[in-house]
Amino acid sequence: MCGIVGYIGTKSACPILVEGLKRLEYRGYDSAGVAILNGGRIEIHKAAGKLRALEALLESCAPEGLIGLGHTRWATHGRPSDENAHPHSDCSGRITVVHNGIIENYLALKEQLIAAGHEFSSETDTEVIAHLVEQSCNGDLVSAVRQAVAQLEGSFAIAVIAQDDPARIVAARRHSPLVVGVGVGENFLASDVPAFLPYTKNVYFVDDDTIAVLERDHVSFSSLDGQPVEREIYEVTWDAAMAERGGYEHFMLKEINEQPQALRETMRERLSSYSAGIELPGLNLSIEYLRRIDKITMVACGTAFHAAMVGKYAIEALVRVPVELDVASELRYRDPIIDDRTLAIVISQSGETADTLAGLREARGKGASIVAITNVVGSSVARESESVLYTFAGPEIAVASTKAYTTQLMVIELMALYLAQARGALDETRARELRELLWNIPQQVEVILGDHPEALRCAEKYCNHNGFLYMGRGPNLASALEGALKIKEIAYIHAEGYAAGEMKHGPIAMIDPGVATVAVAVEGRTYDKVLSNILEVKARQGDVIAIAYEHDDQIGKYADHVIRVPRTNELLSPILAAIPLQLLAYHVAKNRGHEIDQPRNLAKSVTVE
Ligand code: F6R
Asked: Which protein residue has the closest C-alpha to ligand 1 atom 3?
């Protein structure tokens, strides 16, 4: 949801900003722009469309200057156009702002500003910020930004430069991500760390309602009432190469292929050998508390919600504690029954999803202890949770989530086993058996990735179909939903994910020669039922692609195509089933000629409600 970058230092700002925007383009790609402070003047260049349109524009002007801001937009207020592209300026063009978030009271503010004589040149909510700063500015940019921020409602990470205060960038945040990168003789700001990873790994995570002031050799923080705030520097472990395509045609394909390594990293130190128990160093909850909880509530959005669905099956089966699932945007408005005996597990790759954060706060406000599962160190979800279990997936750049999902599943399985161990709910023989199976998962994922001719064949055969039905049962109901989501978001083919038993209650009416059905049919409790469901589709002349175990010699009699995955326990099987589903979606989208990493209408990290 929009990416912002800022640079102040001794190098030419423009190429650094554009490079930073490239690494943030996953956050929005409707338009992009830069503002460079050059010889006492702010020069702005912006263009509707992808970043390459801005790059083309900059080729003919290449602005010089050592201080600047950049922005890549996911439109909320005002259509994608040159005028609505950021940066935005005040009436005089002396103050310039970039913004990620939504100013909810912008209409009221705009009316007041217009009444006071301000002239607007865009339809955006952001422009009010530039005019508010102008209204309060009498030479001191920090104080003017502070006064402007005090009037804003909603979510924002902003960065401001001014011609009359040319040696600093002033930034502020509330509910939208903002990080500051600390270099030598240069400093950076961005919505996300990869923007400045080639230059520094030393990072400050900015808190809500904090003002950050970046000078060339110094960074300082203060509260909205002007009190100095001390922040701690973190050293991030990601490196710049992790945020590059590394020879792959798309980030999505790279990230699919990174899953064995990401899963191993996520397992490391938690499951050191399957003969030993699980350790969860980030879980700051006593065994007494874990024994006392009487309910677990899981909160997430999108793909992360599908991970939570698998979690319900695994935790209820192994720990025997009831698990409630909530899409975060629903939890926050439904007054859920949560108290101090509820453990809330909040799942978010980015750790910045606005609804998920609101769900977290709702659960915490009602007394729940919060365990976050997130991929981003220092993200808002991580900072607001008492326990954090990181997925060590490395930066996920493609909008469609792949390695974040399977590593979330890995953490959830580890957590289910840990809770079962803590509550004495599982005998050691079974626990050890499951640990061994979990231990084998990264290598099994490697096997699937090594050779998947049937997935490629299916992608070619069905890429021009106009619909897909995905079905699964038990924990693989989540696989069906995730498979459908993947194909919708990157291939733009209508797809439904269904509990296989529900097909006959309606969706089976959709079966026709233009609709392919993908059935997750791994052996387990309901395997025979899924076979019957496949027959029901076949009886209506529908084509079926089955995801099934190797050496399952029945399935070939039922399905038109079988994509094989290695055997594991049913509770763990969604991790393996995810891989062919991702590959199928990827190759279908590729065959259709789509821009896979940046699907239309979407952005990664949904920081607005
Ligand atoms: C789908 C996808 C989204 C995210 C959702 C939550 O491929 O990536 O559905 O899963 O927007 O994002 P996070 O996990 O960052 O909270």
From this structure: 302
Q: What is the distance between the alpha carbons of residues 363 and 386, in angstroms, rounded to a whole number?
A: 12
Judge if 80 and 92 occupy the same domain. Answer: yes
Q: Ligand 1 — pocket residues by CB below 6 A?
A: 301-304, 348-350, 353, 356, 400-401, 485, 489, 605-606
Residues 105 and 199 in one domain: yes
Q: How many whole angstroms from 346 Cα to the centroid of ligand 1?
A: 13
How many CA within 13 A on the CB side of residue 164?
A: 14
Ligand 1 site-directed mutation target among 191, 376, 489, 606, most atoms within 8 Å of CB: 606
Give pLDDT tens digits for 418-432.
999 999 999 999 999
Residues 154 and 278 in one domain: no
Give the integer Cα–Cα distance in Å for 381 and 606.
13
275 CB burial (10 A radius; 0-12, 13-18, 19+): exposed
Annotated active-site residue 458? The verdict is no
- Report CA(22)–ligand 1 centroid distance (Å): 20
Instruction: Assess if residue 608 is contained within a domain.
Output: no
Residue located nearest, by CA, to atom 8 of ligand 1: 401
The whole domain housing 397 covers 253-448
CA distances from 267 to 314, 404, 413, 539, 584 (A): 17, 13, 10, 43, 26
Establish whether 463 is a catalytic residue: no
- The alpha carbon of 30 and the centre of ligand 1 are apart by a number of angstroms equal to 19
In a domain, 9, yes or no: yes
Side-by-side strand order, sheet with 3-8: 41-48, 31-38, 67-73, 3-8, 187-190, 179-182, 202-205, 234-235
Of 15, 123, 145, 26, nearest in space to 70 by CA: 15
Question: What is the count of structural domains for the chain?
Answer: 3
Residue 124's pLDDT is 93
Spot the catalytic one: 46, 110, 590, 604.
604
The pLDDT tens digits for 235-271 are: 998 888 888 888 899 999 999 999 999 999 999 999 9
